[in-house]
């Protein structure tokens, strides 16, 4: 990838980061209320990738291994090719 393409990809990624952080802040409470049951919070595959999860609904420390895995998969699917 040429330098100009790399810079454009990085700029696009940073722009998405800001909108993603805003989205997370906006919907965090809803997500915690509806998607913090065991299968949504952690699973063996997610913990193998990201380590153990914090207790359910606790985002102050390690948070949810499954949510980290989901965020990674979402980012990979949207990464510029």
How would you portray this structure in words?
By secondary structure, the protein is mainly alpha-helical. The chain has one domain. The chain has 4 helices and no strands. It has helices spanning 3-34, 38-41, 44-50, 65-78. α3 packs across α4 (65-78). The longest helix has 32 residues, at 3-34.
Please give the structural blueprint.
Blueprint: H1 3-34, H2 38-41, H3 44-50, H4 65-78
Helix pairs in contact: 3-4
Summary, kept brief:
It is built from 4 helices and no strands. By secondary structure, the chain is an all-alpha fold.
Structural class: mainly alpha
User: Any idea how many domains?
Assistant: 1
Number of helices: 4
What's the pLDDT, averaged over the residues? Answer: 85
Extended strand count: 0
Strand content: under 5%
Helix-strand string? HHHH
Distance between the termini: 10 Å
| Helix fraction bin | over 70%
**What form results from the Cα inertia axes?**
elongated
Calculate Rg over CA atoms: 15 Å
Low-confidence stretches are none
Tell me the major beta sheet.
none
């Amino acid at each position: 990838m040429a330098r100009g393409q790399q810079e454009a990809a990085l700029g696009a990624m940073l722009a998405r980061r800001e909108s993603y952080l805003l989205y997370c802040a906006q919907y965090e409470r809803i997500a915690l209320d509806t998607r913090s049951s065991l299968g949504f919070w952690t699973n063996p595959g997610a913990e193998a990738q990201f380590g153990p999860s914090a207790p359910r609904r606790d985002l102050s420390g390690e948070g949810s291994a499954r949510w980290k895995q989901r965020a990674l998969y979402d980012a990979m699917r949207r990464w510029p090719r």
